[in-house]
Amino acid sequence: MELFGLMPAGEIVDSCELTNKNGMQLSVINYGATITSLKMPLKNGEIVDVVLGFDTLEGYMESFDLESAPYFGAAVGRFAGRIKDGIFSLNGKKIQLNKNNNNHSLHGGKANFSQKIWKIENVNEGKNPSITLSYVSPNNEENYPGELAIELTYTLSEENELIIEYKANTTEDTIVNLTHHSYFNLDGHESEISEQELIINSDKMLETTNENIPTGRFLNTTNSSFDFSQPKKCPSKIDTTFVLEKGNEFSASLFNKKNNLKMAVYTNQPAVHIYVGGNCFNTVKGKGNVDYHSLSGICFETQNFPDAPNHEYFPNSILKKEEIYKHKTIYKFQSF
Description:
By secondary structure, the protein is an all-beta fold. The chain contains one helix and 28 strands. The strands form eight sheets. It has a nine-stranded antiparallel β-sheet with strand order 11-12-13-14-28-24-23-18-21, with no helix packed on it. A five-stranded antiparallel β-sheet has the order 1-2-3-4-5, with no helix packed on it. A hairpin with a 5-residue loop joins strand 19 (about 205-210) and strand 20. It is globular.
């Protein structure tokens, strides 16, 4: 554990590093429970940092003031994705959330989980090293009902998997949709992803309005430009929710021919939201003084459907007070 930086009010932000037996290395800070680097050893002996990020705490904080905040490596909540007009109904009561994306609420609102100081609960440095962080979101934070207690564990398995597990419970009925927001680039964070090959294990996506709000309809992707059932180069622009079939945990994969590195994504969530981006508008410098651009990385945001509380036929997003929310996602790496 080492000091990463100080918040304006003097709160300490620590950085923790985990390494598995193969030399795969994960760095996490407790600001936003953020993954700052993920280093993979390749067959040829080289090491590649496969996620985007910043060298300083100031970089992460300033990035939330960009015209499109990138959320590099952060834990996202209380509700990932957009909620139309920032409004939903729960138990017959209409709830108005803070708006931070046009007229809508995005990724939990203005002061979301990605900008909170999480508590480091436990660090295990043995086999399958892990770090557990927690955050308690007060009742009515961003106008969400109920005090929500979240526990998040990052594990590096000996099989070169990054395993992300969320657990949460609430003091009263609320809505929850947590996700992880790393931007991956298997060629290293200073290149672009346009030559990397993408597979998405889905034949349905959510139809959206021009403000990226789900209409409630599903679109068949077969033989369309959104058909990634066979490997295709990463699109230069995508911000799309793909529906995952129940019981099939493989959701997507990315392959970089240049260094023969592959990443496969597995999840118990009903969707994966794919987003290509990372642009910091030449305002905030990325790690190693790199200028991140609109093709710097790709996100695999495993989650429930955006705007789920407002659509009867979308998967349930309500967490009742006696229930436990569980989310598990695995990013598995292989070097050939």
